[in-house]
Amino acid sequence: MGTGRIIFHIDMNCFYVSCELVHRPELRDVPVAVAPNASRRKSIILSANYPARKFGIRAAMSVAEAQRLCPNIILLDSHFELYSEYSQKFFSYFFELTSLVEPASIDEGYLDVTDLCSKIDAVSLAEKIRKDLYEIYGLPCSIGIAPNKVLAKIASDMKKPFGITILRKRDVPKILWPMPVDTIPGVGKKTLPLLKMLKINTVGDLANYPDLRNLEEIIGPNNSKALIALANGEGSNVIDINRFNDASSISNSQTFDNDEFDISNIKSVLKILTNSVSYRLEKHQYKAYTFTLQLKYGNLKSISKCRSLNNPINNSKEMYLLLEDIFDDVYDEGLPIRLIGVSASKLINYEEEIYQISIFDNMDEEEKKKSVNDLITNLQQTFGDKVIKQGIEKENTFKYDKSYKKIIN
Fold it and tell me: Model confidence over 293-315: pLDDT tens digits?
């Protein structure tokens, strides 16, 4: 690897399904997918294993479509607490190897292993990590090895499942340039058709595009320079160890493989994204004042709308009520959706929360609510997160009050 940094990108293969199969090993070789409320045909696939992917089954597909493609597919309900538990386990393993770890999401991360590779070669270390993660936790992974994070990420995608790939700077013309141009991070649904209009179809076409001024006019000067640098194998090798330790926002999004018209499917994905953000807020003991909904339509039009509350929340039902209300306000029914995103910002730690009581609130009820929340928090801190959860007395009783910027019931 030379004298530069050695970066690993470790990507857990079919993570949600893999976590489920740890407890159902008899299903490893048959088509399996995970979905919330898997028995509902309008539910959305979150993850599919490789035997299922051979039938064309992919994330964000409806259960009904997955069953049409593979009538024998086994559908399992999602369990986000289980996935978070396994994520913590394998990241703890990474931190035993090195302190230079940057989580990228629940199922992937970057490691700077330069110092470790003074004692063991990079491929042997990657083989050990891959073997340990499978034997200890039952989780398969792919590992990309490169001098920077961008190349490491691209490399980890090249051999799945269970692959190890090295991508050096000197290999970029031979290996990276023949790949489709949207292999490069940052070339998305909006930029790709513009590049194709310029006959830029491969990474090499972009890296060697002869008319920089023309490219800048089409996709902008900053975007042009950044993408050309990435196409030539440039990228950061700095591991941000504080990426999730000082969060200013928590977000999640889902891109549909095809334009989506079905409102029930769109709202199912919105609920999944909301649950994911809520779980991460609770895990890190945050609440949020501001929630943002992002929509991208099939015609590349994009809209982003946020709302703020007087008192912060992290409850998934309250969050979904607010975000669904935003969606109903801004959604253009005449246009199909290509991407939907959710984010929570203006975060506050539980210990810093100051509850603002309106003159319209019932003081006794607010005191009761706060006492119950404090009791639950104390029990969870003493006996663990799973000892008790707060229930809801009646389903669907929450209502968003726009006048007072709060959730009422």
Answer: 999 887 767 788 889 888 899 99
